[in-house]
Amino acid sequence: MDCCADKREPLCQRTTDIFLRGMRIRMRQNDVLKEGTMMKIGYARVSTEEQNLDLQVSALTAAGCERLFHDHGVSGATFRRPGLDDTLTQLCRDDTLVVWRLDRLGRSLMKLVELIESLDKRGVRFQSLTEAIDTTSGSGMFIFHMMAALAQFERTLISERTRCGMKVARDRGRKVGRQAAMTPVQCAQALLLSDTLPVAELAEKFKVHPRTIQRVLRNARTPSQHASQDD
C-alpha cells in the first residue's frame, strides 16, 4: 500500500506541474493577445490652410501611432471638429490617444481636462508628446492632476468674477440677468393691440410665449389700477 502511494504521489505532482505550466502559457498568450489589441491613435491639427501637418505626423508616427486623424485649417477654440469627432469614435478601451502638443487637441484648459477625464472613464489612455503627459505613468498622471487643479481654479475664478460683476451692476442700478423677451416699444404695441387681439395672436405676432404677453399686459395695467385706487 505504501509503495503504491509513493508511486502515485510523483505522478500526481507531475500532472499538477503540467497543468500549471499549461495555465501559465495560456495566460501569457492572453496577455499577448490583449497587448495586440491595444492601439495608439494619433490626432493632429493646424489652424490655417497655409500650415502643414508634416511635423506632427512624423512625431506621431515615430511614437508608434497606427492610425492618424487630423483637422486642417480648424481653430482649437471649438471642440466640434470632423477629425477629432472621428478620432474619438474610433478609440476603444485600452487604446491611447496621442497628440504632438496639448494645444493641438484644444486651447481651453477646462475643456481639455473634461475631454481627458471622459476618455479615462472609457478606459482610453492619453499621451501628449511635447508636455510628457502620459496617463499610463505615475508622473504623467501627476501632471494631469495638476492640470485638473488649475482648470478647477480657473472655473472658480470665472464664477467669482461673474458674481462680483453682477453685484457691481446691481449696485449701480443696472439690470442683470436674462435679456427681456420684448423691448419696451414692443410692450407698448402689445398693450395697444390687446383691446382688439387675443393673447394667442399677440404671442404669435411678437414671436413670444403667450405667458410673456400675459406678464407684459399685467405689468402694464398694474400701475393704473393702483392709481385708480389711490384716487
TrEMBL record:
What the entry lists under SUPFAM superfamilies is as follows: Resolvase-like
Query: What Gene3D superfamilies does the annotation carry?
Result: Resolvase, N-terminal catalytic domain (3.40.50.1390)
Q: Which keywords does this Swiss-Prot/TrEMBL entry list?
A: DNA integration, DNA invertase, DNA recombination, DNA-binding
**Which terms does the UniProt entry file under GO BP?**
DNA integration
Residue ranges of domain Resolvase/invertase-type recombinase catalytic in the record: 39-173
The molecular function terms of the Gene Ontology recorded here are: DNA binding; DNA strand exchange activity
Q: Which residues form the signal peptide?
A: none
One of the Pfam families matching this protein, by short name: Resolvase
Query: Active site annotated at which positions?
Result: 47 (o-(5'-phospho-dna)-serine intermediate)
Q: Which InterPro entries does the record associate with it?
A: Recombinase_CS, Resolv_N, Resolvase-like_N_sf, SSR_resolvase
Q: Which family does it belong to?
A: Belongs to the site-specific recombinase resolvase family.
* Descriptive protein name: Site-specific DNA recombinase
